[in-house]
Amino acid sequence: MNEKLLLEDGTELEQVFCRPDTLTDVPYHYCPGCGHSVVHNVLMEVVDELDIQDKTIGVAPVGCSVFAYHYMNIDMQEAAHGRASAVATGIKRVLPDKLVFSYQGDGDLAAIGTAETIHTVNRGENILIVFINNGIYGMTGGQMAPTTLPGMVTSTSPYGRDVHMAGYPLKITELIAQLPGAYYVTRQSVHNPNAVRKLKKAVTKAFEYQMQNKGTCFIEVVSNCPSGWKMTPVETIKYLEEVMFPYYPLGDLKVPKE
Amino acid sequence: MEKELRTEEPRLMKGNEALAEAAIRANIDAYFGYPITPQSEVIEYLMREVPNRKDKKTVVLQAESEVASINMVYGAAGAGARVMTSSSSPGISLMQEGISYIASAQLPCLIVNVVRGGPGLGTIQPSQGDYFQATKGGGHGDYHLIVLAPASVQEMADFVFDAFRLAEKYRNPAMILADGALGQMMEKVVLPPDGGLPKTPAPWATTGKTKDRNHNIITSLFIQPEEMEKVNLQLQKKYEDMQSEVRWEEFQTDDAEVLLVAFGLSARICQKVVDLAREKGIKVGLLRPITLYPFPYKRIAELSEKVEFILDVEMNAGQMVEDVRLAVEGKVPVYFKGRMGGMISTPEEILHEVESILEKQNVLHD
What we know:
The complex is a heterodimer. By secondary structure, chain A is an alpha/beta fold. Chain A is built from ten helices and eleven strands.
């Protein structure tokens, strides 16, 4: 920051913005239009702004964002599918003064890891759980997720999700919000700049609550998967607004009484 | 364990409780577990005792499942803590996913398996039916645990220290493999000294990235095959180095014509068999592997040169006997005597087996 840049023509420029130290200089591997990179940026910007890089430990998920630790320049642990919140519990319990978050997708958190998720929140583990819900299994090639909407076509629901056969989309965040251990539960998105700003505020709050030992903070980010949904990035934004948000309404589900 | 460090009077304790007390004295940072018979006294003891030790900051947490507990162990071990869990056979099966990840991520920790009869839900009675699972990987991929097999309540306590020492030296999960009887029985035990196990530095741990180092990453994901092979070769090299840690115990093998090989409680029973046999003039000796991984192949091979035959005794359908046969390489006959489902062979039964093999051999010799 504040370094002088000298251009070839002799112009001197003052650098006022650069990649924060909390992000590594590694290009994201995500598909064009995918929300993961934006959420990564938001998380690390908050870590940077709160100056907690040396205190923050992340738990990376299984799925498309399995390499989150390549991009986030903080200490991180990779967890087995679904087990991120148990791993985060282990870290937080032995390092209670550090800030711990897990980053998990819908299959990870709402299918294979449902038990770990519910019990971690129910214990009120003083961590932040970031839940990326794009209603599909992106990495394995677009199979049905617990959060896949009725009628939504995926490779394992090729005629659209039939709720009589496959059950209903799991509103796991609504379930989580009921648990006494949950302190702050919110549903956000990154589909436009305004939403990104709101997410950033939520993440900042969550880290601040964690510093005050308030209990589990849970942030769902309803996101998109252009490849899995077989849509252009622009089409996915429309789909989010018209189809996903009515089922997964954005906003706070549980806020602390202040 | 250094004998001179022990200053306390002997106590009468249950195996599970002696193990739990040793864990407190080993200054564990955390225990994560889930109750299951016949080892629930471990978590019960820790829950009861830790809050009374003002100098101890040990985390003791009852997880929602064995799956969660082993992943809590993974997280805590990755954060540089001295951490353990304990369970019994069906619970250990649930932990296998996590154990494979821990082995791959090269994290030290202690996993205690107080074995019960199986397969499946099985019985709560003692067994040694988890030998394969403990020594041959258990979860997916090419890996090994350091496996210690106690044969007394004293060793249930002592091996906690040994297991952590080895686990931290090699950055590898260690397992104490005991059967249900060792967990439940009460014996005299002289406990290891409190705080007698210095902490190993863990510069690789995720404790928060400081300015003076790169970020630490704990992972078992190596998606490029070249990289994955490199990690595997490194693991194999580590297992080779571990061979120097092999430990066993021998009883009256000097002049033995018949060699018994047994671990854990079976070895305790076989000590009695040695005495009974020698009273009858049959020169029986016993080799008891203390580390099941690494396994004392070399010593068994040496002894096999001097004996008529080997009888392997276990509380299972014959698992370690495969390693014994590998060691012997067909030089002498290797027989097996085992009982399953929570049943334990009596010394008399085993002696009878020795005698009938001898009889059979004599018939062949005549």
